[in-house]
């Protein structure tokens, strides 16, 4: 894989279930070598996007490519992508050892040493049935299967949503360890920013089936500012400020501003913003847009 | 892929194998008894018409109400039930169960294309289903051999009339059961792929397979090969009964063709139309006997029109029937493979 | 070998925290010339953070001339930050302990002590900076 080949590239990607669009107008290009976080509330379309990326779902419109190839388009393509599906499914009736055998028989690039090493470090009994494992152990087993096939990119769909804090931490430790060891690119979704804050350096915010913002975390943090000052009319603010969110009291205005040039404005206090606040601003922006849409509808009536 | 398919199928295979083994024991333990009955009744060496007649009477009285009759019907039932169960318990859960548990997303993210995943499963389970049904039918064939042989010697009035061509028994013999098994499995698979939920898919499979197996002998089988039409002069011994009203008469005619599959048999007039009367004088008069009535009808020189499949066509019919079912199964399976590739259900 | 830890409430990014912890360890003499820093894999396996964060922190330390990466082996300390001031640590620590005891006996709780220290420290630092600017 050349560094220029995006890990995930979508153009006008959309998926419709009967009349409802689960994802729409999604155009993205995630460069390689990143741990990418896909954040959004439940039902935003994260699972739909990832399922299309691994070829479990076919797009209704647009295109999606992973590492430059059509998802699940060939055996070689399948081997390049590791996937941990939502709720980390495993065969309840099959033992841990059976799962490793499954991986061995179904993946030409299977690395048995990695798989066995992981299982022994997790203290899993190979004879244990997967149905009897705890949520954390099951997630680790699913992760082990995805890692030992030696993919180039690992795609994870809310792998830790249902885990307790300790199991979450352990899962992320494993994930980061293999990422460092094998130089994997990772794309992982979560509805909680806090899950992703430490691990990702590329972020996609997905709300109500649309991409709100996407980019390198460092760039995002460097181009977003929290601006506080006397109450002002947004129309009179500098034209190169992109107002992401604004809240006003009768005296004060608090704004989240996106700007490629440093924000300096007399009379205003300008602060850097944390990743979590940044994401939350985008989520609330989406909500207020939706609310506005609702209001327009109501007036029309 | 073969490993996973086998690992997932193992329990079902063991269950099915056990059922088959129990049945094999049942058939073996009674099969020798039946063969013994055949020998002691003297059927094996009977030459003269008379001795055969006695031997047959002995044999049939030994069968009637015996354990053999019971075992025979059990085995026939299982040969028909088997394919339906294979469809419902092997075919219907194949994809649906994995959709329900989410494991399809695990299986399909391994480095095996989903076509291959499905084809290996279809091949393994489909062939296993066919093999099981085939084995069952072979066992029953061995077991019931004495009864069929006896029936071949028998005349209709002895009461022992079983033929491999009768609708019920045709489906338990030859290669037809293989076709049923393949078809039922493919129906289960299609229900699984389309419905994506195990229980409804099982119910639909049972309903469809049941309907097809019941409707087939009446609606389809007679058309596999055009039946032989034979028209002969109506004889008194062919008339099995009659009903008379004031304006019409209808005859119940039975041909003496124990080894054929008679589809229709009726009395026709010289124009080839079914004979419906009017009642002859002898039949209309209350004072005349039944025999007089029959004689008066025979005197009309009516014909007997028989439509039937002769015994010699047994294997040709079997071939067409099994072939049709197999073709349906292959088409369904191919459609399912195409469907999951295109629709990508997860 | 040192072990990194992250303080979620510090407000500093993980990247800066790592750099700070190495510098601190160098100042306190916990790390000296020739010592190896934990591998990137070990750090991320422990802290569950992005490997690029660790790489970036190590690169920054390398740029500052404090450490050097040897390909395939690891990252090693090339310079120490301990100086004559290290000798002054012990008496200063004793003074501070004395001051803390005094503050406690005056009825200050931990929070008040921290607040007092922080505000005095900040005021002093700001005064110094202003002086420098002038």
Order of helices and strands of chain B: HHHHHHHHHHEEEEHHEH
The CA-CA distance between the termini of chain A, in Å, is: 55 Å
| Count of DSSP-assigned helices of chain B | 13
Beta-strand proportion of chain A: 25-35%
In short:
Chain A is 35% helix and 28% strand.
Polypeptide structure, described:
The complex is a heterotrimer of chains A (301), B (346) and C (134). Chain A has 301 residues and is α/β, with parallel strands linked by helices. In chain A, 35% of the residues lie in helices and 28% in strands. Chain A has nine helices and 13 strands. Chain A has helices at 46-53, 75-80, 96-106, 112-121, 135-148, 165-182, 193-197, 217-223, 275-300, and strands spanning 8-17, 20-30, 35-39, 61-66, 81-84, 153-157, 185-190, 202-207, 210-216, 224-230, 242-248, 252-258, 269-272. In chain A, helix 4 packs antiparallel against helix 5. The two termini of chain B are 19 Å apart. The mean pLDDT of chain B is 87. Chain B has a three-stranded antiparallel beta sheet, with no helix packed on it. In chain B, strands 2-3 form a two-stranded antiparallel sheet. Chain B is built from 13 helices and five strands. With 346 residues, chain B is mainly α. Chain C is mainly alpha-helical and 134 residues long. Helix content of chain C is 60%, strand content 6%. Chain C has five helices and two strands; from the N terminus they run αααββαα. Chain C has helices spanning 14-27, 40-47, 51-63, 85-105, 110-133; strands spanning 67-70, 74-77. In chain C, strands 1-2 form a two-stranded antiparallel sheet. The relative contact order of chain C is 0.11. The model of chain C has no long low-confidence stretch (mean pLDDT 86). The A-C interface holds A 33-35, 169, 172-177, 179-181, 198-201 and C 6, 14, 40-41, 44-54.
């Amino acid at each position: 894989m050349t560094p220029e080949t995006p890990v995930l590239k979508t153009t006008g990607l959309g998926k419709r279930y009967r009349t409802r669009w689960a994802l729409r107008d999604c155009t993205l290009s995630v460069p390689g070598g990143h741990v990418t976080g896909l954040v959004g509330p439940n039902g935003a379309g994260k699972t739909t996007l990832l399922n299309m990326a691994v070829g479990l779902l076919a797009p209704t419109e647009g295109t999606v490519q992973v590492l430059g190839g059509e998802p699940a388009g060939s055996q070689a393509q399948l081997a390049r992508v590791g996937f941990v599906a939502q709720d980390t499914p495993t065969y309840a009736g099959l033992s841990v050892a059976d799962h490793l055998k499954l991986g061995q028989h179904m993946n030409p690039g299977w690395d048995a040493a990695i798989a066995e090493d992981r299982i022994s470090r997790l203290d899993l009994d190979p004879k244990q049935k997967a149905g009897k494992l705890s949520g954390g152990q099951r997630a680790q087993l699913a992760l082990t299967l995805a890692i030992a096939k030696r993919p180039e990119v690992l795609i994870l769909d809310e792998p830790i949503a249902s885990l307790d804090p300790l199991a979450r931490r352990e899962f992320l430790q494993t994930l980061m360890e293999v990422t460092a060891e094998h130089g994997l690119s990772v794309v992982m979704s979560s509805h909680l920013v806090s899950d992703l804050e430490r691990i990702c350096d590329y972020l996609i915010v997905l709300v109500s089936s649309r991409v709100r913002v996407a980019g390198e975390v460092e760039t995002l943090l460097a181009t977003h500012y929290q601006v506080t000052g006397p109450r002002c009319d947004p129309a009179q603010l500098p034209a190169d400020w992109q107002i992401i969110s604004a809240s006003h009291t009768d005296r004060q205005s608090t704004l989240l501003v996106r700007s490629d040039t440093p924000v300096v404005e007399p009379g205003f206090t300008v602060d850097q913003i944390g990743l979590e606040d940044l994401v939350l601003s985008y989520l609330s922006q989406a909500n207020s847009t939706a609310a506005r849409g609702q209001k327009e509808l109501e007036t029309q009536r | 892929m073969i490993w996973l398919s086998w690992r997932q199928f193992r329990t079902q295979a063991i269950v099915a194998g056990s059922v088959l083994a129990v049945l094999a024991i049942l058939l073996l333990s009674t099969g020798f008894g039946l063969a013994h009955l055949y020998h002691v009744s003297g059927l094996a060496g009977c030459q003269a018409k008379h001795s055969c007649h006695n031997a047959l009477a002995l044999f049939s009285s030994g069968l009637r109400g015996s354990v053999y009759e019971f075992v025979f019907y059990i085995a026939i039932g299982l040969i028909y039930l088997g394919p339906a169960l294979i469809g419902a318990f092997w075919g219907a859960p194949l994809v649906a169960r994995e959709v329900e548990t989410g494991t399809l997303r695990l299986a399909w993210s391994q480095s095996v294309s989903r076509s291959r995943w499905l084809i290996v499963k279809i091949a393994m389970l489909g062939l296993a289903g066919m093999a099981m049904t085939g084995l069952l039918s072979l066992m029953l064939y061995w077991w019931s051999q004495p009864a069929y042989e006896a029936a071949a010697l028998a005349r209709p009035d002895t009461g022992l009339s079983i033929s491999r061509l009768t609708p019920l028994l045709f489906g338990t013999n030859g290669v037809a059961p293989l076709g049923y098994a393949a078809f039922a499995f493919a129906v289960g698979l299609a229900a699984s792929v389309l419905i994506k939920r195990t229980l409804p898919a099982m119910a639909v499979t049972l309903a469809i397979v049941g309907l097809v197996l019941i409707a087939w002998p009446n609606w389809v089988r007679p058309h596999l090969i055009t039946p032989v039409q034979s028209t002969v002069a109506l004889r008194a011994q062919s008339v099995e009964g009659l009903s008379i009203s004031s304006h019409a008469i209808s005859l119940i005619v039975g041909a003496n063709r124990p080894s054929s599959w008679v589809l229709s048999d009726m009395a026709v007039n010289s124009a080839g139309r079914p004979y419906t009367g009017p009642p002859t004088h002898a039949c209309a008069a209350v004072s005349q006997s039944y025999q007089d009535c029959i004689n008066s009808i025979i005197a009309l020189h009516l014909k007997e029109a028989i439509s039937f499949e002769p015994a010699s066509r047994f294997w040709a019919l079997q071939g067409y029937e099994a072939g049709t079912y197999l073709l349906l199964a292959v088409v369904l399976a191919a459609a399912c493979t195409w469907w999951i590739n295109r629709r990508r259900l997860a | 070998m040192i072990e990194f830890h992250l303080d979620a409430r510090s407000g500093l990014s993980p990247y800066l925290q790592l750099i700070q912890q190495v510098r601190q360890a160098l100042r306190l003499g916990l790390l000296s010339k020739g010592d190896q820093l934990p591998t990137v894999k070990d750090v991320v396996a422990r802290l569950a953070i992005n490997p690029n964060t660790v790489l970036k922190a190590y690169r920054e330390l390398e740029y500052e001339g404090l450490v050097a990466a040897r390909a395939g082996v690891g990252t090693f300390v090339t310079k120490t930050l301990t100086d004559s001031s290290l000798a002054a640590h012990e008496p200063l620590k004793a003074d501070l302990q004395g001051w803390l005891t005094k503050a406690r006996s005056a009825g200050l709780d931990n929070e008040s002590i921290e607040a007092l220290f922080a505000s005095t420290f900040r005021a002093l630092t700001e005064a110094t900076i202003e002086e420098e600017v002038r």
